[in-house]
Amino acid sequence: MSGIVKHFGDLTACDNVDFKVEAGEVHALLGENGAGKTTLMNILYGLALPDAGEIEVSGSSVSLGGPGDAIDAGIGMVHQHPLLVDRLSVVENLFLGGVGDGTELGLREAISEVEERIALDVDPAAIVEDLPMSQRQRIEIIRCLARGVKVLILDEPTAVLTPDEVQRLFAEMERLIDGGHSVIFITHKLPEACRIATRTTVLRHGRLVGVYRTSEMTAEDLAKAMVGESVPYASNRARTKPGRPRLSLRGCSTGDSSSTTQLDNVSLEISEGEIVGIAGVEGNGQRQLSELTFGLGQPSSGDIQLDGMTLPPLGRWGSEDIQIGRIPEDRRHQGLTLNAPIWENMLTGPQAPKTGRLIRKRHTIDWTRRMLEEFGVRPPDPIARAEELSGGNQQKVVIARELWSNPGVVVAVNPTRGLDLRAQREIHDRLIRMRGEGVAILVISTDLDEVIAISDRIGVLYRGRLAGPIPAEMVDRGRVGMMMAGIGSDEPGSAVSEQVR
Amino acid sequence: MSELLDIFASTALYATAVRLALPIFFAALGETFAERAGLVNVGLEGMMLMGAFAGVVGSHYTGDPWLGAAIGIFAGMLVAAIQALVAINLAGDQIVSGIALNIAVLGITSYLARTIWEGGDVPSVNGFDSITMPGFSEIPFFGPVIFEQSVLVYLAIALAAVSWWLLFKKPWGLRLRACGEDPRSADSLGIPVFRIRWQSMMICGALAGLGGVFLSLGQLFTFSDNMSGGRGFIALAVVIIARWSPIRAIAAAVLFGLFEALALRVQVTDINVPPELMLALPYLVTLFVYAGLVGRTRPPKSLGREYSRG
Amino acid sequence: MIAALQPDRQAMMMTLRMGVSVVAAIAVSSILLAAGGFDLQLVYEEILRQSLGSPFAIKNSLIEAVPITLVGLGVAVAFRAGIFNLGGEGQIYMGALAAIGVALGFSGLPGPLLICLTLIAGIIGGALWGGVAGALRSRLGLSEIITTIMLNFIAFWIVSYLVRGPIQDPNSAGYPYTAEIPGRSQLPIVGDLIPTGFLIAVIASAVAWVLLERTKTGIGIKSLGSGEAAGRFAGFRVEMVGFGVMLIAGAMSGLAGAVALLGGGDGRLSDFFSPGWGFIGVMTALIGRGSPIGTLLAGLFVGFLTNGISGAQGTAGVPNSVAQMLLGLFVLFLIISNTDFFVRLAESARASLAGSRPRRGKATV
Prior knowledge:
By secondary structure, chain A is an alpha/beta fold. Helices cover about 35% and strands about 20% of the residues of chain A. In chain A, α14 links the parallel β17 (about 410-415) and β18 (about 440-445). In chain A, α4 packs across α5. Chain B has a two-stranded antiparallel ribbon.
């Protein structure tokens, strides 16, 4: 690919980017969120059309109008959340994906042929939505291979995998390049790039920074290239001694034991002046735990209390005075009404300032402007619609609304997902500062680095059970990784927590 | 009471029920294709009305009901093409455009009827008489109910079977359902989402047009303003009640037809029930059956959501 | 991917969309009218004269605008919460039914009191009917698009039965209508020009505007309309808001029925009482882009249009149905002009005039 340019409105996602993959290599595409990695690869996979630039495959220029064209050109893509039709079976998806010659027999032959290189390892009749992400990714890989794909794009596959699944994926990638395939591995995790890639291309703000031979680079060098200046990780400075407990869950379970993961007998206590981090791979009960603490659901058994009083569900009497700052995972759909102006967004939820019966618009707008300035939202324009802001600024609006009143308890779910490093730093610093002021903070995050960087105590959710939390000093990464995978016993939760103790 | 039993015992009731169910069934079958592909088509009513009108115009000018039917079907597809353009290519709001189409078609057909025929006095045109299948119509009960109907009844049964086969046994049907479940994934798998959604909408328009044709050329042999009279919306309910299955759609449509037939039958007996209240009954029954299905319906996942590439 | 337009550009875009849509709708209708052998100049002159040409014409246009606007306001409020109230027609009938019951049953009361009670009865009757659809949606999750249509037919046949039986005017010589409302319950016309009903519609628009723009409930309704997750997270009980919005929509339509009974027509309830105000009201709300002020303006436009066309029916022979044709096409063109495609088209046209790079963007209804 050479001279690729892509605009979205005023945003230039890719600015004259050159990119080249050779046969038989794992090529890491490294960059922060929003650096243009995914856009560049969507162009290579025909999901987006470039505004300028040229794509060549084996020396001849191609134009890719859709994924079909890309696959015909030997380019395939495996998405972090694989693009499969969830309610259809594995074979039906493979069939739709053009595997085989359109007959059932041909399909089976094509699958078994690929299985020599990579094991399907899943019931072909299983419905996709019942499968874990690692298996769904494998289905996409198999589909690409069966279609004769030579260049495989993996879009941040490891974010939704356990460390053990990551190891297996890396082994499979190595086998593929031994067989002459090329793998483009999109990531923003440096150690992974160093571990697996032959060469690494670094993007920053839509521009090409450089192409490096990974063996000649240290992780620090790559980090500098990626970020542009050295930004140290937020560190959890000077622990204060936690005070009295504020938010506590006692033996909380949710829902029935249906197919989706539910919380199973979770107990947890968060005290004044501490940050409790909950790690875990997505889909292991994070959503249920956050909904409980957000007041959006009630436990089917057990009790959730704020200062010794049962937390009333949102919308019931008494819930409007609850002082919990809530930072949801999905700022675009949960946290904000995108097509509403920011000042209206500042008036939703229990943390919003009290208004009389009628809203005083000018007054609210003035107040909103002050808040936006205080929380560093750019631009601090209260009548702009929320959708006009960048992701980081949208998140800051949510944080301004939830934290301006200094609530004594904060629950944050993936608070920095999708934000650039600077915005991440600001949010982490704010949480740590509030911790110092005696606020009780619960951070539920799928980003293990984030949890380790800011937490005083760390717990792990696996299949709805909570292991820990244990003091951060006692945690080592490898162990948490194993906890996230539920490794160590047949009976995950209880045994893992014992292992930790 | 015994008179009511008499009504239920008469085969004429069921024959009428089937006849009244047919237009609704055709439209519902079309809508099943559209919704399985992820398109909500509230404009069904307008497509039926346009089909009914164009069918009469066609039959009037050609004198041939078959040509009239073809023109009616084509007219239904024409309306569907507008809906497809807005819903698929322009990613506009499907429900709003459906409502707008209904009103526009209502206005256009009434206006054109008045322009073509002075004062809107639409004459009687050649339609489809019932065809008696020799031998079969002798069978007790089923004979008169099924085999003494206009040709379109046979067509309906055949179409339901063919649709089921297409949707659930053919790769094309699998692709179509994938578009309704998850168009983004379908696109990524290499399925031409736009083309398949267009196909489903065209089928929907053709079948809704056919339903309208049956209304005008199969039953009344003429056109009157707003003669679809909400049947398009009932067909929408039928699709849900039938849980997006072409076969079950027959039963759901006949259920509605049965109560409409009952309302007509009761009027010609001595039973002292106000006919107006009897005429409200089919709608009430539809509402109750719909409410009774709560929690048991599972629509295609991306139903009604527009799709466009980023 | 959404590149927002600046506020002044948004306003410009909106005006452009309205203009383009109305011109396109009139163009298509004109082609059809010309094909039907009508003298276009005569037709449009007559429509203007019959809707605006005299104080009498203006008064009648305003009377025509009232039920349309009121139904439209209810539709608009529900629309902002993401709910389609297609049940205006049934709610009008149920509102008018309750209203005629009070107007005839308490005919001895003094005029102002009787009028108030009758209007309240209309509001309650409509709200009950809207509430049924709201409850079916909130409690059972039934699509209001289907339930409201079914309820329209049920309400229509109930009224049809009643006006042919229990509440038929004994002196009607068999015609299916009720007795006339007492003269003192008729809504007065202010200065022989402004019907009281129109003032009621203006007040209702103001109330709806305050609700949507100046209360937290309004913010909740709007956040619900752009996806349930935000409303739920903010602590709004989504089901309750959905139900409440249908109550409001029904109340507005019921009020429309009562006002139409007291302030226009022949003061009787019949089964041809509403000439399709329910759906015309939906069109009105869509033209008004779901905003109360927009709906009031759209209601005026639609009122003048329909009154003009029905007047022109007598003088220029234009069928009434032309109004439906025009409105349907208008809304259809509005949707088309609201898509990315149109925005891009307009932007690139603007850009080529200004000589700058085209931008992408998506406007909202």
